[in-house]
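User: I'm writing a tutorial on reading structure tokens. Could you give me a worked example: one chain, its sequence, then its tokens, then a sentence or two explaining what the tokens reveal?
Assistant: Sure. Here is the example chain.
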Amino acid sequence: MKTFFSRSPEWSLIECHPTGQWWILERCVFAHRRLQIYLIADAYRGDQIKQAIVDFFDAASGGHPENLQIASPSRNLPIHGGANLVAYVGHDGLMDFRVESVPKPKNGERRDTIILACASKQYFGSALKATGAHPLLWTTGLMAPEAYTLKAALDGWAAQESGEAIRERAALAYDRYQHCGLRGARRLFATGW
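And here are its predicted structure tokens:
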């Protein structure tokens, strides 16, 4: 994430810093160069994958909305349950363990999610539905959860494209980097319920 988005012509790295939570190694804040869109990326310790997934579901439900103060430009950014879009990018830990409880929706606001992990539709589906969030992009099979797919999806989301258009962007990016064939890449991604 940090390397890929830092090198992107559409995004600039604003800051990276520790969060004060030992299970998160670093938080990086990126700003879109043309639009008023910010990406906050938390890098979790590898052995804290369960906490990362629990935090994802909490944010997807609208739980624990916070404001993150950034210095340049000076502003407060809504994070966690205050974000409009929440993404999880990484190993599908739900293949290995269960989450004991999933939070219910905290408010009536629509919150989109992106889940880039192996077979995320199958493994995250019932829990995500319980949070009240909308699956903008997720996967149907094994995949490499990497930043180029997230960037392609974010580009479509920022342009207010349909879920199908975002799915197509993700498939094109995935095929470009993985050379798996566009047909296979299209089958890998899904949008909506």
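What the tokens reveal: The chain has a mean pLDDT of 96. The chain has six helices and nine strands.
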